[in-house]
Amino acid sequence: MKIRKILVNQPNRILSLRELGKFRRELGLTKKRRFIALLKKFPAVFEIVEEGVYSLQFRLTPEAERLYLEELKVRNEMEDLLVLKLRKLLMMSMEKRILLEKIAHLRTDFGLPFEFRDTICHRYPQYFRVVATGRGPALELTHWDPELAVSAAELSEEESRAKELQEKDLIIDRPLKFNRVRLPKGLQLSKSEMRRVCQFRDIPYISPYSDFSLLRAGSKEKEKHACGVVHEILSLTAEKRTLVDHLTHFREEFRFSQQLRGMLIRHPDLFYVSLKGDRDSIFLREAYCDSHLVEKDRLLLIKEKLRALVTVPRFPRRGSLKTDSVGGEDGTSGQEDGIVEKAQDWSDIDSYLSGDESNDDEDDGYEDDWSDEDDNIPPRF
């Protein structure tokens, strides 16, 4: 992704390997490695162009170029949705103002462009504006829209009630429906844990967009509000997941507890916290079915297609099936369906995250030894 970002900013989207060496620090590379070995590891993404005896250049393959142009088109069409996400994030905060450096932690999860600080944040003064603070520039809400102050949990509850009313009209002599807590597949709770979950659910719902300045820290009501905020933030992300570390950056804006990770683990019916890898990940349980993401936005579909291109080996294994296209018949990648390719349970997500602890592409560095013989290690995004 970093190399592609550098490449598309060049004239005609072509760059020599010598010029690429100037971006070694930007790419997070501390050791001298052969760039040609790296580029050849991903033949479906980059192609080498010979210009003279001592000059090698590279560019995107036609398929990678098509995906990049498709991504640009989708991002332009989805800008209104990205603006809505920023507005809702600001509306949930205490002061209706959040530092831009903190919002940047959710950039990848929200699907914001790299340069969102200089583009989206300045294009919509009717909704928000960039203000100077003693701790750096911040994004401040300029217009409160009560129609946006409805959480995804409230919308889901309304849909469930409408469905139940419809069933009552269609079914006669239906047995009484008790308010049971449906646990995700594979989740086993003790009686005491189940009792605690039920008691917490009995607490009246507190909207993440409500005024929480009077809620006492450490109270059950404050924890109910904090769970609502995390639920809403996850619902705004593309993959309905993020890193726990990203949420901790917003302790001040949302008055999160210092033991945020522990609070999330206490609610396994709402969130799935993966403890694998260097940094813990949190998933919105209701957005997944057997560890597969139920609904995917258009940017995520493009991301999966790009992942499929990245996994194309330089030398196909003997006996492997050859395919004419990367994408499946439904337009998604033929290798990934949701967050995990062959996942059947939540435990499979832990195995997936063991090799992909972070989804923040600004922090990752590629530290493998790029030799011509080692062609089976995909990059980490």
Automatic annotation (TrEMBL):
<protein>
    <submittedName>
        <fullName>PROTEIN WHAT'S THIS FACTOR 1-like protein CHLOROPLASTIC</fullName>
    </submittedName>
</protein>
<dbReference type="InterPro" id="IPR021099">
    <property type="entry name" value="PORR_domain"/>
</dbReference>
<feature type="region of interest" description="Disordered">
    <location>
        <begin position="320"/>
        <end position="381"/>
    </location>
</feature>
<dbReference type="InterPro" id="IPR045040">
    <property type="entry name" value="PORR_fam"/>
</dbReference>
<feature type="domain" description="PORR">
    <location>
        <begin position="2"/>
        <end position="311"/>
    </location>
</feature>
<feature type="compositionally biased region" description="Acidic residues">
    <location>
        <begin position="357"/>
        <end position="381"/>
    </location>
</feature>
<dbReference type="Pfam" id="PF11955">
    <property type="entry name" value="PORR"/>
</dbReference>
<dbReference type="GO" id="GO:0003723">
    <property type="term" value="F:RNA binding"/>
</dbReference>
